[in-house]
Amino acid sequence: MKKIITPFLFVFLIFSKNISAQEAKIKSQEGFSPQIGTMVSMLEDLKKRVEYQVKNLNQEQTDFLLDEKANRIGAMILHLAATEVYYQNATFNNGAFNEDKKWTLALQLGKKARKKLKDKPIQYYMDIWNEVRAETLRFLKTKDDAWFNANMEGNPNINNYWAWFHVMEHQANHMGQIALIKKRMPKK
Predict the structure, then answer these.
(1) Which residue segments constitute the domains of the chain, with CATH numbers given?
(2) Backbone torsion region of residue 160, taken as left when φ is above 0, otherwise alpha when ψ lies between -120 and 50, otherwise beta
(3) What is the pLDDT of residues 122-180, one digit of tens each?
């Protein structure tokens, strides 16, 4: 019997060549309540995939601009960290967001960020994101599923679960954007 490889299966096989069978499972992580542990599994999986895409970028690639309105990959990694900090504050600190210029610039991106967020190696940005993620995990370990399903303080329309789901989907969106930018970089 001949095996048929559909386009979906082909893309999955190519993409997953660097993912072991254990890494390809979403399951609640030890040390967290069940629902939070599942979200942590998804957050960490996406972060690993983003990191895999960027870990070998040189300085020119890290700072590459697709066009005059695009963002650099390094800036996008800092943006992912800043978004996570924003949601840490929204969910853990009752919405109190520290208006640190580093985070504000990285959250907004745009023209100012194109001028300022450059000339650092990709690991610089990953180290910042790693520190932010460690803080996220530390806080999430102190919470339970009742908190996860509760509304964010001061916002009855959003629960904490949605906030962290949004952080996860935000990572996925930028992972796709990073892949597109990498494909458009000039070949040497």
Answers:
(1) 39-184 (1.20.120.450)
(2) alpha
(3) 999 999 999 999 999 999 999 999 999 999 888 889 999 999 999 999 999 999 999 99
User: 20, 39 in Cβ contact below 8 A?
Assistant: no
Judged by phi (left if over 0) then psi (alpha if -120 to 50, else beta), residue 164 lies in: alpha
CA trace torsion 72, 73, 78, 84 (10° rounding): 120
For 38, counting Cβ atoms within 10 Å of its Cβ (0-12 exposed, 13-18 middle, 19+ buried), the class is middle
End-to-end CA, the chain: 43
Length of the chain: 188
Q: What is the pLDDT of residues 123-136, one digit of tens each?
A: 999 999 999 999 99
DSSP string, 134-147: HHHHHHHTT--HHH
3-state helix, strand, coil in the chain (%, to 5): 65, 5, 30
